[in-house]
# Entry
Amino acid sequence: MSGERFQVVIVGAGLVGAAAALVLGRQGVRVALIERQPPDVPAETWDTRIYAISPASQRFLERFGAWQRLDAQRIQPVFRMDVAGDTSGAIRLDAYEAGVSHLATIVESGRLQHALWQALQADGPSTGLGTGNVALHCPATIESIERGESRTRLTLADGTQLETELLVGADGAASRIRDWAGLGSTLTPYAQSGVVANFECEKSHRGTAFQWFFDHGILAWLPLGGPGGNQMSMVWSTPSAHADELIALDAAALAASVQAAGHDRLGALRLLTPAVAFPLRLNRVEAIVAPGVALIGDAAHGVHPLAGQGVNLGFGDAEALVEVLAAHRKNHCGDLRVLQRYARERAEPVQRMQALTHGLHHLFASEHAGWLRNTGMAWLNRLPPLKAALVREAMD
Ligand SMILES: Cc1cc2nc3c(=O)[nH]c(=O)nc-3n(C[C@H](O)[C@H](O)[C@H](O)COP(=O)(O)OP(=O)(O)OC[C@H]3O[C@@H](n4cnc5c(N)ncnc54)[C@H](O)[C@@H]3O)c2cc1C
# Structure
């Protein structure tokens, strides 16, 4: 085999792959990052894809300076979370009551991606801007992947050849690396879609996130940053036929429908961005490692967005993989025994989140569960220790 040698080659510079590359590079690991297309430069308009970043993910992003690159005017800490059934029951999770500064921070996907790329470019030897260890190949297409005795060789369409001890698939839900490595996955569609759109609201959200569990779906309103605190982002997980109906509504009718479903909690709404729908799927991956291969992010799992935890799980993967590799510096990075430590570490949090979101989806998204949904919420709201436990779960 011949080609430029790396310890780790990461395919996919989405949020998770870019973060993993940055941390590994900072630790002195020789890393190459392959991405087929650069991210869009963020526009002035607000993204409809937003994330509730947990405090644990925030700390991880702060460690390598990506968080500090975000515009403070466009991020919004969540201080309270009101979770309600469709009639009476409601739980309020409150950062102040739980003794923490905030429960999560709402961040735009495009801006976070841009911050990670700026950090990468500041670190990458290919740009000549820094002294880091990340060789970024973008735009790049993988022509072939060949497994050798102790290394994997990748050939790119421009003829570049890279050899690596460890190949990391951070290439999203339809991962080519996962397929190439023969790591099976089961996709279960939920027959639901997520409808996302941003609204201006009459009343200030004051850092509160709202979530309603209905007979046939879950509606979330997440507070957006910006002056006045009067913009929010909606994620409505609902049967696909209803999603199609929502998408077909004109701006005023959609705003009225969302306002009514959310019991007018933020007064009159005005649509800021056209609504977009995406199908919801559970993705279970049987094994996330093989000799010389590891999966992270959406390549390794897909969860229902009701807990807004997909990207937090991915950052957890990146952090765990980096830590396991750092703790076994003397080993070959593709050593299966080392990689299995990473897989074991991630099994529990990923299964817990999949079971929680899958279970909640079935428990609450049933028309026979109305009583449970409403009474259970009212009951839960009177149990401070259980609420504090829920807050801690949301913060991991
Ligand atoms: C509409 C929508 C809304 C969402 N909302 C939320 C939310 O509110 N909260 C939340 O936590 N999560 C949410 N998610 C999930 C979240 O977006 C993902 O969990 C997260 O983006 C996963 O990041 P990733 O880096 O693993 O994968 P991706 O973001 O999919 O990145 C994969 C990268 O790999 C690149 N790539 C793929 N194949 C190749 C190849 N062969 N060669 C080179 N490069 C390749 C792609 O170009 C891409 O840049 C949402 C997802 C969608 C679709």
About this structure: The radius of gyration is 22 Å.
